[in-house]
Specification:
Number of strands: 10
CATH class of one domain: Alpha Beta
Structural class: alpha/beta
Number of helices: 5
Radius of gyration: 16 Å
Shape: globular
Protein name: Methyltransferase, FkbM family
CATH architecture of one domain: 3-Layer(aba) Sandwich
Distance between the termini: 30 Å
Keywords: Methyltransferase, Transferase
Order of helices and strands: EEHEHEEEEHEHEHE
GO molecular function: methyltransferase activity
Pfam families: Methyltransf_21
Low-confidence stretches: 7-16, 94-101
Largest sheet: 7 strands, parallel
Strand content: 25-35%
Length: about 200
């Protein structure tokens, strides 16, 4: 089975970074069926994959069984640690629109899910193990606004080559204000490596 993220683990201090050429590191948030993780693996990299949907997570577990280059976690990502209800939209259990964020659309509760603070995971458990993050994908159905605010405010975007963030302002009654705030923040931080609506 693939590795799992244990937020209690300390970074591996046995690696001699001067003797290692780092492969590309990806953080795949909203991994779904693993398309982005597959691409990074094909390029010789490794992926930290977060997928809160228990049904998709079980598929990913089987798909990446014994693959040491995939660190798989059945958690949702946001800007704080807590537990919440994972919500299903009208598309069914495998829908790409399932999420943790309440919206103006109709949703139905599926199961409880652990939510982790992505910025803290990056700061404490990913960056200490790697020189740099090559690619961060955020397809998290509305949680991206809180996450990106944290990443920009903490300056974590400076340690990531590319951030691909799909935005879901349509889920919110104040969606236009949310996307404007995000765009303005990206501009003020000169975070040219952030790509919105990249797909």
């Amino acid at each position: 089975m693939p590795n799992s993220i244990d937020i209690n683990l300390h970074p591996n201090s046995n690696l001699d970074e001067h003797k290692i050429i780092q492969p590309p590191v990806c953080i795949d948030c909203g991994a779904h069926a693993g398309l982005i993780t597959d691409i990074i693996l094909f390029c010789g990299g490794m992926s930290y994959a977060f997928e809160p949907n228990i049904y998709l997570y079980n598929i990913l577990q089987s798909k990446y069984d014994n693959n040491q280059n995939v660190i798989l976690s059945q958690t949702a990502v946001s800007n704080k640690f807590h537990k919440t209800e994972f919500l299903m939209d009208c598309g069914g259990i495998f829908s790409q629109g399932n999420r943790i964020v309440e919206s103006i659309d109709s949703t139905y509760g599926m199961h409880e899910v652990q939510v982790v603070d992505l910025s803290k995971i990056i700061e404490k458990y990913i960056l200490p193990k790697h020189k740099r993050i090559y690619f961060l994908k955020l397809d998290v159905e509305g949680a991206e606004f809180d996450i990106m605010d944290s990443i920009l405010q903490k300056g974590l975007y400076k340690h990531i080559d590319y951030i691909a963030c799909e935005t879901h302002e349509r889920f919110f009654s104040d969606g236009e204000a949310k996307i404007k705030k995000l765009r303005d923040s990206i501009k003020s931080h000169r975070a040219d490596n952030v790509l919105l609506d990249w797909i």
